[in-house]
Amino acid sequence: MVESNMKALGHATLFFNRPIPKAPLANAVYFDPDVAQPLPTFKVDDDIVYEHI
């Protein structure tokens, strides 16, 4: 299901270290990264490619 949802997204909002709300956004991706792992740095117009392994 995740793969089909990712392919259907035209754009997405990325949330880091935020709890998933009771009514999550349809185009949101919620991350809970390891605290030892640095957060990624994004700039305007960066392409983010999802690759299912």
TrEMBL record:
Record GO biological process: phosphoenolpyruvate-dependent sugar phosphotransferase system
Superkingdom to which the source organism belongs: Bacteria
Keywords carried by this UniProt record: Transferase
Cytoplasm as UniProt keyword: no
A cellular component term, taken from the record's GO annotations: cytoplasm
Record carries keyword Transferase: yes
Record EC number: 2.7.1.69
Entry-linked InterPro entries: PTS_IIA_glucitol/sorbitol_sf
Leading EC class: transferase
Name of this protein: PTS family porter, IIA component
MF term (GO), any: protein-N(PI)-phosphohistidine-sugar phosphotransferase activity
Phylogenetic placement of the source organism: Bacteria, Bacillati, Bacillota, Bacilli, Lactobacillales
